[in-house]
Amino acid sequence: MGVQEVPTQAFDDQKPGTSGLRKKVTVFQQPNYTNNFIQATIDAVTELEGSLAGATLAVGGDGRFYLPEAIQIIIKMAAANKIGRLVIGQNGLFSTPAVSALIRQRQLRGGIILTASHNPGGPTEDFGIKYNIANGGPAPGSVTDTIFKKSQALTKYQISDAADVDLSVLGEVRVEDMIVEIVDPVDNYATLMQELFDFDALKAYVSSGIKLHIDCLSGIAGPYAKRIYVDLLGAPEDAVVNASPKPDFGGGHPDPNLVYAHDLVAAMQTGAYDFGAAFDGDADRNMILGKNGFFVTPSDSVAVLAAQYEHIPYLKKNGLQGVSRSMPTGAALDLVAKKLDIEFFEVPTGWKFFGNLMDAGRLSLCGEESFGTGSNHIREKDGVWASLCWLSVMAGTGQSIEQILLKHWQDFGRNFFTRYDYENVSSEAGDAVMTKVRSLIGNQASWPTDAPSGHKIASVDDFEYTDPTNGEVTSKQGLRIIFTDGSRIIFRLSGTGSSGATIRMYIDSYIKDDAAYTQDAAVALKPLVELALQLSNLADLTGRTEPSVIT
Ligand code: G6P
Ligand code: ZN
User: What keywords sit in the KW lines (predicted)?
Assistant: First the structure.
């Protein structure tokens, strides 16, 4: 064994996005590409937080193609850079929430998560590398900016010429002076869930005959869902499907929504199951369905969990310090916060804003329309945890998911919600739509007064957020058209698209009328959808008459 210093050429495209560096596998496979990014990450963390010599990091990912190769590179480079210990999930596997939980529980310096979340995997699909900091959350902009800066100036990296480590064998091995500790990827997370929830009550509920159908979409949620639902809660083996992580997710798109989790939707529509859930590739997103395919929008999901928090043992014990949603998320949560008289925060899209509020002790529960729900038990969103929250509310109330939602709407009114995605439009067309909507700001004379639905605009703005924990201002986070009845139309350009621009149009239509809650969401939302298309002139400016995806 020995450490080598290898000369390298900098790459100019290693700028991490909000969720790390995501590129095609073939990009990561270029000679030195992965090595450079790992060295830039180690150098950046060293510069900002002090030496990593002797430190412990967690490493693991969602099982996608190129994971084993990336982990061997990380082991050899970590050893050469004098890191003290790596805690790696067996076979390189860890869900994103499990890494966050492990960092917090063992007070590690940080972790490296290998995933491209809900993007497809395979030799021609996506891979990703993301650094999480000591609070268990994604690295903030200051860290990712420094990684990018380091990557642009990199001339060499350090690597050990040690042999590959067998990732399948639990226990400790030494690489140079570093210990590699291979652990069961589920143990620590399952223990945490047992601390948060009442597993005896859940087990009794499951054995009372409630039928579960949990689809892991061949992502990393499988081993976690099997352990929790089958081994610990006694559900039948076949209650959890697609539970073996596959490098290509079985050729599917591991994203839990009505389009990509169609098998789950179809299974639920047969009426054979009471509770359905799906998770994305790295198990941080979730979708919840009730009997006959009854769909819980992510915006409603976080609002219901907040309203019913007393059925979730650790939230009941600790109380809700505050709740939060991202700006485009339907505003159902706002009404619950008002009723509970607790702090409420509307933050920009992206999980990092929640983490700051949690660290400050001001946020217990949060969610995003993009199928993310989470709490201060970790600093990432958490799919399997969200499903346990829902099961707890069902067990506690004795009601079906549909009954829980109906009651919620009767109490608070219903925020009908939909998102239209126009993918792969040109950047120019995307900008033109935003410019057109932006022209409504401060120009009251241009606001329509004769909308057939009676909707009247109360305000238009470009969302700006001041983080109450550190005063940092984040501006231009999406255009909001707010109506006098609280309904909203939002336009935003996606921050995660890979080519051209993706326009997201979000419609949040508030209705308080007991007779209206069971109507088809598409029908209820039609007037505002039409108004949004008219106000943005979207069809003319983009040439698109239909969105690519409706969720
Ligand atoms: C990632 C983040 C989420 C965020 C989403 C937004 O998944 O983890 O927190 O909601 O991106 O994506 P968009 O494409 O709308 O910018
Ligand atoms: Zn994810």
Answer: Carbohydrate metabolism, Glucose metabolism, Isomerase, Magnesium, Metal-binding, Phosphoprotein
